Structure formats: C-alpha cells, structure tokens
Write a sequence for this structure.
C-alpha cells in the first residue's frame, strides 16, 4: 500500500472546517478515480500551528472533535510545528504551553498519532511519547532542516535517538543543495529498509523527504522500498515541494 497524508490548515475554526471538508471531497474523488491502484489517503494531518486559538483548550478540542467526525476512520495526526522547523506563525504563548496542549490532545484520544519534534529536547520527547503510548496513540518523531541535508551519519544518529525515545514512525525532512543530496537520501532510505546499517538499531518505519522542487522525486519513493507515507496538499501546501493530491495520485499510478 502506498499511503498519502494530507495536511489540514486554517487560522480559524471556520477556515479549518472548510478546508477539511474540501480535502475529504477531493480524497473521495481521486480514490474513486484510482480505485484499481494501491494508492490511498490514510492520514489527515491537523496542523495546529496554523490555528489561532490553539492555546484555548475548549476551542481546540471542540475543533478536533469536528475534524475527527469529518475524517471518519482515517488516521488523524496532530502536529504543532515549531517556527524553527517550518511552523506557520510565531505564537509565543503556544510555545510555553506546548506541554499542556499535548496533554489535552493526547488525553482526549481524538487523534490517532502525535508528531513530536526531536529537537524539542529528550525529556519533553520522552514524556510526550510515553503519555501518547499510555493513551494508545502512535508517535511520529520528526526532524526538519530547511537549510541543508546533514551527513548520513548524523541522520542515522538522530533516527536511532528517535527510536530510543519512543518513536513509532521516524520522520526526516531536509533540504537538498544539489541533486546528489536527493539521491543520497533515497539511497539511505533504501539501505535502511533493507537492514543494511548493522551498527544502528533502527527498526521502526521511516519517512524520509527531500524538500523543495529539487526533492520532489523523494516524495514518490513509497511502499515496501520507500517511506511509510508521503505528504500531498489540497489548496495550500504546508511544506516546500509538496505535490497536489490529484497530481501525486497520477504520478504514483505511473510508477
């Protein structure tokens, strides 16, 4: 199965509900068109860093509940992306309140997965991951670099730390400065999946993305020999280089 995630964005309750409704309509359309393929939208990502009332518990959980109703039985991923790793806007209060926000979301069980940034610190990562697991949720531990693609060894070290800290899915999104960086990430992923890094204890599923236009090829590297899932967009991309949902179905169907 080649699995696609689509991000849900918006500043206000109304904007977010309008967007998730539009996303689900598009999902129904493209899945019907490509029903004879193994391509599906299995994950909807709620990007809480876009939402202006993310620090208001009642409003946040009410919104999440309605999003949950609209997406149905598809996996719902909660993400609060920091400004340093590509978040939509600066929200100082949310930065201080993130432990509370994650507690509200996890204990509500309105989502299936939570994204946790590796660079938020080992204590915070381990705490969120343990709380999520206690609630029966999965964790996506993530690292984003909008300037460069680190050395393979550094990426492998980070992924090993992600797994040690409780990651169920290990996500790396980096920026290529040359085509070689894209090939390097695809080859690293291939070797990881084949079990080729004997010096590293990395057994969990991975998502490795080269961002930007140069890295679009990496977003099509899916399935048994690639990422567990990739990201597409409907209406507005939430990261550089994402492919529109209809286009990614079309491209994947040709692979």
């Amino acid at each position: 199965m080649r699995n696609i995630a689509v991000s849900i964005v918006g500043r206000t309750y109304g904007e977010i509900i309008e967007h998730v409704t539009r996303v689900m309509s598009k999902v129904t359309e493209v899945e019907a068109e490509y029903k004879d393929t193994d391509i599906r939208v299995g994950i909807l990502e709620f990007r809480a860093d876009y939402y202006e009332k993310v620090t208001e518990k009642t409003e946040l959980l009410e919104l999440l509940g309605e999003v949950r109703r609209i997406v149905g039985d598809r996996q719902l991923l909660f993400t609060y992306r920091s400004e340093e790793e590509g978040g939509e806007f600066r929200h100082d209060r949310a930065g201080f309140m993130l432990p509370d926000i994650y507690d509200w979301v996890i204990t509500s069980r309105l989502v299936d997965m939570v994204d946790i940034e590796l660079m938020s610190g080992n204590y915070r990562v381990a705490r969120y991951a343990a709380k999520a697991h206690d609630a029966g949720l999965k964790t996506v531990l993530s690292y984003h670099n909008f300037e460069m693609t680190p050395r393979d060894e550094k990426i492998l070290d980070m992924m090993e730390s992600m797994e040690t800290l409780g990651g169920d899915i290990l996500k790396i999104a980096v920026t290529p400065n040359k085509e070689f960086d894209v090939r390097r990430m695809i080859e690293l992923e291939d070797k990881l999946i084949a079990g080729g890094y004997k010096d590293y204890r990395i057994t969990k599923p991975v998502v490795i993305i080269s961002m930007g236009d140069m890295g679009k090829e990496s977003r099509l590297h899916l399935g048994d020999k690639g990422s567990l899932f990739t990201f597409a967009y409907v209406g507005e991309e939430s990261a550089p280089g994402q492919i529109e949902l209809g286009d990614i179905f079309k491209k994947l169907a040709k692979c």
